[in-house]
Amino acid sequence: AHSKVGCQASLATKYMETSEIVDLDWENLGFGLVHTDFMYVAKCGPDGNFSKGEMLPFGPIALSPSAGVLNYGQGLFEGLKAYRKTDGSVLLFRPEENAIRMRDGSDRMCMPAPTVEQFVDAVKQTVLANKRWVPPTGKGSLYIRPLLIGSGEILGLAPAPEYTFIIYVSPVGNYFKVLKAQKIAKQKGYSDVLYLDAVHNKYLEEVSSCNIFVVKGNTISTPAIEGTILPGITRKSIIEVAQSKGFKVEERPVSVDELLDADEVFCTGTAVVVSPVGSITYMGKRVEYKGNQGVGALSQQLYTSLTSLQMGLAEDRMGWTVQL
Ligand code: COI
């Protein structure tokens, strides 16, 4: 087994050295899975420590039908991105934040988690091994999907006796491009769904894959992180970017009435980055957002600030990027 791993590792080194970019249709990249070369796999037994981990060819994994994740949903995922700079090198965006969130989530799910150091190191290794799949600058990014699953066999409801930490990657483009195609095909409907709180049915929660922001004048409001709201890393970053541009940002309950009365509305997430909302329909009433300075003007400005930092086109004064 050792020599097999050694051989795969040297294959990864070879890709790193040649560092050519794969021949893909970069212009038409959506948010769909593209198989890449390698995935990272590490296991953790009852002692709570994760093995060193190995880089394996991307492909199916074997799981017992009685694995904790299949029976009781004991598992979680993370998502982050790597961008290619114009000099060909690659930048990661705030990977320690994902490591910390995985640790917090795993605690809630009674799972052991890799250390922040092991997480970040594993992400770096996986991206470097698949470097040729990182899109050229401006054509998209490499989406990185870390998974932590209860892979051990269990019958009664209890934490699994073994866990697997996996990282796979896929080049991605625009998230909503995919949904837009569905929309045209269906000739009706909306791009996404916005959820309201379960108690009052009145306060904004999240859009299915992203956090939401409501703009009124110079104030930007977003639901506070209180149990049901995902502590998005893009959310947190956009709050800081907006504040540095002189906006007042409020984290608090935001009602649906404020949403309907807003100048501009946008979503944030790793997959969606910063996406303006064109319109919202609530109880049959449709509101279109035209913005103070044109449709989606602020979200466009925030998008550009964030992505130029992520792609290494602007100086990273925040210290958020990790150079590979
Ligand atoms: C993200 O990574 O931004 C996500 O929300 C995961 C998503 C693709 C469902």
From TrEMBL:
Pfam family membership, one: Aminotran_4
GO BP terms in the entry: amino acid biosynthetic process; branched-chain amino acid biosynthetic process
Keywords: Amino-acid biosynthesis, Aminotransferase, Branched-chain amino acid biosynthesis, Pyridoxal phosphate, Transferase
EC number per UniProt: 2.6.1.42
Keyword Transferase: yes
InterPro entries, sorted: Aminotrans_IV, Aminotrans_IV_CS, Aminotransferase-like, B_amino_transII, BCAT-like_C, BCAT-like_N, BCAT_family
Cofactor(s), by name: pyridoxal 5'-phosphate
A cellular component term, taken from the record's GO annotations: cytoplasm
Reactions it catalyzes: L-valine + 2-oxoglutarate = 3-methyl-2-oxobutanoate + L-glutamate; L-isoleucine + 2-oxoglutarate = (S)-3-methyl-2-oxopentanoate + L-glutamate; L-leucine + 2-oxoglutarate = 4-methyl-2-oxopentanoate + L-glutamate
Gene Ontology terms, MF aspect: branched-chain-amino-acid transaminase activity
Family, similarity comment: Belongs to the class-IV pyridoxal-phosphate-dependent aminotransferase family.
Protein name: Branched-chain-amino-acid aminotransferase
Lineage of the organism: Eukaryota, Viridiplantae, Streptophyta, Embryophyta, Tracheophyta
